[in-house]
C-alpha cells in the first residue's frame, strides 16, 4: 500500500476507519497487558474471562494475532506521513478503550484535531456519514485536474464525477483550462470541493457529452 500511495501525484489522503485495535500480526508475542482479548476482557473456554490471571494471547487461547500491534501501525502511518500522505483516523463504537493509540495515530498521520480526542469519533452510521462528509471537505478534490498525458483529440474526452457523466460546459460541467488540464465549473466544482466526490475520471475515446 505504501508504494501505491507514494505513486500518486498531488496531495493524497488515507482514511483509517476502525472498530477496534490493530492486531492480526501472527509474528508478535505479548504479555497480557498488551493482549487485546485481555484489555477487552473477552470470554474464552467455559465462559472464563481474559482477566489479569491469564494471558489470552497464549497459543492455546486466542494466540499471537490478538496482540496489540501498536508499534507497527504507528510506524506505517508515520512512514506515510513522511511521503506527504495524511491519514484521517476514524473510530467506530468499540474503539474507546484504545483512545490513546488512536490519538497517537491521528498525530502521526498529520490530521489531529485541535483537542482530545485527536481522532474522529463516529458513534453510529449517521455520524459516520457526517464525519466522512466533513473530512471529504478537508481532503476535497480540486477543480483543476492535470492529466498524466495530453489526449490526442480533445473533442473525444468525457469527465465523470464518481459514476456520473458531466457535460462539456463552461458554466455547469467541465472545460479545458489548457491542453493538459481539465477544469470543473459551477456546481461540478462545488461538488468536488465540498467533499461529495470520491473520484474524478477523465476518459478519452468517445465524443464529449454536450448538454
Describe the structure.
With 211 residues, this protein is of the alpha/beta class. It has 2 domains: 2-138, no CATH class; 144-204, no CATH class. It is 26% helix and 19% strand. It contains 6 helices and 9 strands; from the N terminus they run αβααβαβαβββββαβ. The protein has helices at 2-6, 36-39, 70-82, 99-108, 125-138, 186-193; strands at 12-18, 85-91, 120-121, 144-146, 157-161, 164-166, 174-178, 181-184, 200-204. The strands form 3 sheets. A 3-stranded parallel sheet has the order 1-2-3, with helices on both faces. The protein has a 3-stranded antiparallel sheet with strand order 4-8-7. Strand 5 and strand 6 (164-166) form a beta hairpin. The chain is elongated and about 70 Å long. The two termini are 39 Å apart. The mean pLDDT is 90.
The strands making up the biggest β-sheet line up spatially as 1-2-3
Tally the structural domains.
Answer: 2
Helical stretch tally: 6
Mind telling me the C-alpha Rg?
23 Å
Work out the strand percent: 15-25%
Low-confidence stretches: none
Tertiary shape: elongated
Instruction: Report mean pLDDT, rounded to a whole number.
Output: 90
Helix residue percentage: 25-40%
Taken in chain order, the helices and strands follow as: HEHHEHEHEEEEEHE
Structural class: alpha/beta
Largest sheet: 3 strands, parallel
List keywords for this structure.
elongated, alpha/beta, 9 strands, 211 residues, 6 helices
Amino acid at each position: 500500500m505504501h508504494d501505491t500511495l507514494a505513486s500518486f501525484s498531488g496531495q493524497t489522503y488515507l482514511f483509517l476507519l476502525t472498530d477496534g485495535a490493530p492486531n492480526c500480526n501472527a509474528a508478535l508475542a505479548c504479555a497480557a497487558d498488551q493482549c487485546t482479548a485481555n484489555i477487552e476482557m473477552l470470554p474464552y473456554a467455559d465462559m472464563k474471562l481474559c482477566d489479569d490471571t491469564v494471558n489470552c494471547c497464549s497459543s492455546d487461547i486466542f494466540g499471537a494475532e490478538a496482540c496489540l500491534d501498536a508499534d507497527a501501525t504507528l510506524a506505517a502511518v508515520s512512514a506515510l506521513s513522511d511521503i506527504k500522505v495524511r491519514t484521517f483516523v476514524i473510530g467506530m463504537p468499540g474503539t474507546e478503550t484504545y483512545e490513546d493509540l488512536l490519538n497517537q495515530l491521528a498525530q502521526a498521520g498529520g490530521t489531529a484535531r485541535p483537542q482530545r480526542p485527536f481522532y474522529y469519533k463516529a458513534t453510529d452510521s449517521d455520524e459516520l456519514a457526517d464525519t466522512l462528509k466533513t473530512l471529504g471537505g478537508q481532503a476535497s478534490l480540486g477543480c483543476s485536474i492535470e492529466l498524466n498525458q495530453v489526449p490526442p483529440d480533445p473533442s473525444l474526452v468525457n469527465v465523470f464525477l464518481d459514476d456520473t457523466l458531466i457535460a462539456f460546459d463552461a458554466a455547469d460541467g467541465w472545460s479545458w483550462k489548457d491542453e493538459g488540464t481539465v477544469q470543473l465549473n459551477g456546481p461540478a466544482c462545488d461538488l468536488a470541493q465540498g467533499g461529495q466526490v470520491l473520484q474524478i475520471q477523465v476518459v478519452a475515446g468517445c465524443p464529449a457529452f454536450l448538454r
